[in-house]
Write a structure and sequence with these properties.
By secondary structure, this protein is an alpha/beta fold. The chain folds into two domains: 232 residues, Aldehyde Dehydrogenase, Chain A, domain 1 (3-Layer(aba) Sandwich); 189 residues, Aldehyde Dehydrogenase, Chain A, domain 2 (3-Layer(aba) Sandwich), CATH 3.40.309.10. The chain contains 14 helices and 23 strands. The strands form seven sheets. It has a seven-stranded mixed β-sheet with strand order 14-17-18-13-12-20-21, sandwiched between helices. Strands 9-8-7-10-11 form a five-stranded parallel β-sheet, with helices on both faces. Helix 1 runs parallel beside helix 7, helix 2 runs antiparallel to helix 4 and helix 4 packs parallel to helix 5. It is globular, with a radius of gyration of 24 Å. The N and C termini lie far apart (80 Å). Bound molecules: 1,4-dihydronicotinamide adenine dinucleotide and magnesium ion. The site of 1,4-dihydronicotinamide adenine dinucleotide has 28 residues, from helix 7, helix 8 and helix 11. It is an enzyme of class 1 (oxidoreductase).
């Protein structure tokens, strides 16, 4: 199979697009303005569906529904055990609709259909099961108190109405990663999917109705960032915003919170993660991991190991393997299971990546393979590897969010650590070595929220995930994620005959 060639037309029957309206208070409704926007198939730039373009008025309606469901409805008052039953039913329904959901993300976002079926959608269902299991198992503490005549305890209460603003690179997983712990905590919510990939979120909304969530608990407002997204960020009646996306928009969301009601904010932002290969590594395995680490999901993944540092003793061997493997990496139709990756999400992202590739060439990096768009239809880009990249280059410093690898050589362990940390980001890092002392020293020295040793993308429902530095300020997945949607109340009272009575 040649690099960059698709294996022919998709054989899969495209999913029927059933849901294109906003989901507010348990009903699918048009946007107040009746405006719509086009959802585009990145394989060919064609319109798949016209989706309701929600704006401030629609966000107001959705927030009112969520506020009412939180302040007066059964959801936050129900036992965690009862909430878990409904959340588990939701997970059952997602599992029964794996094919359809995976197909929606494939046509909407150019994501591989077979990977969606094997990984994205089962993982989304898994998030709901994991947090269903947690819904009746979080609690406060009994306090010892420093004053012996006092008694105190804490309660963990749901934070209230949550706004979830989600990105386009993992539409289903991101939906689940945010919505599931918020539901378990007892929150109600307004979800805004990315304008590039609104379809699976609307399908989830439909399933949520069937699962039996009370009206107003889950609302979905499709629309643009600068309109619907901004209205969520500055809303006076939203208690918390959970956001995944670019660092620039993360900043805007913090500013909007600061100038509105000081809502709580959790941010999961960009990255420029290092992948370090040490001299004692198996060159073939290391190259395989580095390649997957950078090109999986067409490089549109915040934890992409896009800066690959190879120790000098093994450098040539690894480079040869990387180039050989990249040339065999098959880019094509997301419905063709022999392909490793599909088109970039949209024209804007496609052009952005190609402009970074041009920067790399002009800045003097050595292009080892790739470097071009594929075909004249759709947004396909060759897996691209640059060597001799230096720390002053734009391609070294900035998140590209595409299939572009920067390759560098290092000498000592200390130098490897210094290179790894030479970034404003701190999301993830990969280490390949068999030497436990190297592994321990390096993993403790890298300033990043997730370290993967002799593996990459080792996501797990039970493992907290999030960034240091400019990569964010929260943890998702695992029990830590519940804290994003809970607040602690301390209750104190005097015991009999206490002087504090
Ligand atoms: P973005 O940050 O603009 O979009 C993410 C979400 O934020 C979308 O739902 C969007 O509608 C919303 N949004 C945009 N502007 C907003 C605003 N002013 N207020 C509230 N919500 C707003 O990301 P974009 O433009 O799609 O991609 C640009 C770059 O961002 C990518 O090239 C990549 O580097 C990074 N990115 C990182 C992601 C991650 O997983 N950390 C995911 C998506 C993008
Ligand atoms: Mg699309």
């Amino acid at each position: 199979m040649e690099n960059g060639k698709s294996n022919g037309a998709a054989t899969m029957k495209l999913p029927e697009i059933k849901f294109t309206k906003l989901f507010i208070n348990g009903q699918f409704v048009d946007a107040t303005s009746e405006k719509t926007f086009e959802s585009i198939d990145p394989r060919n730039g064609e319109v798949i569906a016209k989706v309701a373009a929600g704006d401030k008025e629609d966000v107001d309606l959705a927030v009112n529904a969520a506020r009412h469901a939180f302040d007066h409805g059964p959801w936050p008052r129900m036992s965690g055990f009862m909430r878990a039953k409904i959340i588990n039913k939701f997970a059952d329904l997602i599992e029964q609709n794996i094919e359809e959901l995976a197909a929606l993300d494939a046509v909407d976002g150019g994501k591989m259909f077979h990977i969606g079926k094997l990984s994205d959608i089962p993982s989304a269902a898994g998030h709901f099961r994991y947090y269903a299991g947690a819904a009746d198992k979080f609690h406060g503490e009994t306090l010892k108190m420093t004053k012996p005549s006092m008694f105190g305890y804490t309660l963990k209460e749901p934070i209230g109405v949550v706004g979830h603003i989600i990105p386009w690179n993992f539409p289903s997983i991101m939906f689940a990663m945010k919505v599931a712990p918020a539901l378990a905590a007892g929150c109600t919510m307004v979800v805004k999917p990315a304008e590039q990939t609104p379809l699976s979120a609307l399908f989830f909304a439909h399933l949520s109705k069937e699962a039996g969530f009370p009206d107003g608990v889950i609302n979905v407002v499709t629309g643009f960032g600068s309109t619907a997204g901004a209205a969520i960020a500055s809303h006076m009646d939203i208690d918390k915003v959970s956001f995944t996306g670019s660092t620039d928009v993360g900043r805007k969301i913090m500013q909007a919170a600061a100038t509105s009601n000081l809502k709580k904010i959790s941010l999961e932002l960009g990255g420029k993660s290092p992948f370090l290969i040490f001299d004692d590594a198996d060159a073939d395995k290391a190259a395989h991991l580095a390649l997957i680490g950078c090109f999986h999901n067409k490089g549109e993944i915040c934890v992409a190991g896009s800066r690959v540092f190879v120790q000098e003793g093994i450098y040539d061997k690894v480079v040869n393997k990387l180039v050989e493997k990249a040339k065999n990496w098959n880019v094509g139709d997301p419905f063709d299971s022999t392909c490793q990756h599909g088109p970039q999400v949209d024209k804007k992202q496609f052009e952005k990546i190609l402009s970074y590739i041009e920067h790399g060439k002009n800045e003097g990096a050595t292009l080892l393979t790739g470097g071009k768009a594929i075909g004249d239809k759709g947004y396909f880009i060759e897996p691209t590897i640059f060597a001799d990249v230096t720390e002053d280059m734009k391609i070294y410093k900035e998140e590209i969010f595409g299939p572009v690898m920067c390759l560098m050589k290092f000498k000592t362990i200390e130098e490897g650590i210094k290179c790894a940390n030479n970034t404003k980001y701190g999301l993830a890092a990969g280490i390949v070595s068999q030497n436990i002392d190297v592994i321990n020293t390096v993993s403790r020295s890298i300033k990043a929220g997730v370290i993967w040793v002799n593996c990459y993308f080792a996501f797990d429902l039970d493992s907290p995930y999030g960034g240091y530095k400019a990569s964010g300020n929260c943890r998702e997945s695992g029990m830590d994620a519940l804290d994003n949607y809970l607040q602690v109340k301390a209750i104190a009272m005097p015991l009999l005959n206490s002087p504090w009575q």
